[in-house]
Amino acid sequence: MKKTILTIAVAISCAVTGIYANETNNDPVLNTEVSTNLELSSFCKAIMKGDLETVQKLIDLGEDVNKKSLGMTPAHFAARYNKPEILKVLINNGADLKARCDKGYTVKKYAELSNAMEALKVLKVAMKG
């Protein structure tokens, strides 16, 4: 009886909060499955917004430039959203440009899929050196 009540409570909780383990993202570039950990890091949010000042402050405070959020590294986000200046800062602070997201894409592939020409230029220069 206790198991039944607990199972029903969990099911209702998930239904009310809208958490579905197999829900998928409709973004054709990202196309990632949504898990119960739906939090995008503040660091990656700042990257997506193009907030260079906040990105630099967080790095100065010890933010890991290779820590994944939603399956992608900060460099993936910078490439995906065409933020070349932020991408340069990440590279200068040790971003791994060969890292793959959880779907297997490289930073360069995200830039290509997003037609992020400025980010591609930064990556081209960085990968030569």
Automatic annotation (TrEMBL):
<feature type="repeat" description="ANK">
    <location>
        <begin position="70"/>
        <end position="102"/>
    </location>
</feature>
<dbReference type="Pfam" id="PF12796">
    <property type="entry name" value="Ank_2"/>
</dbReference>
<keyword id="KW-0732">Signal</keyword>
<dbReference type="InterPro" id="IPR002110">
    <property type="entry name" value="Ankyrin_rpt"/>
</dbReference>
<feature type="signal peptide">
    <location>
        <begin position="1"/>
        <end position="21"/>
    </location>
</feature>
<dbReference type="InterPro" id="IPR039323">
    <property type="entry name" value="ANKRD_45/46/60"/>
</dbReference>
<dbReference type="InterPro" id="IPR036770">
    <property type="entry name" value="Ankyrin_rpt-contain_sf"/>
</dbReference>
<keyword id="KW-0040">ANK repeat</keyword>
<protein>
    <submittedName>
        <fullName>Ankyrin repeat domain-containing protein</fullName>
    </submittedName>
</protein>
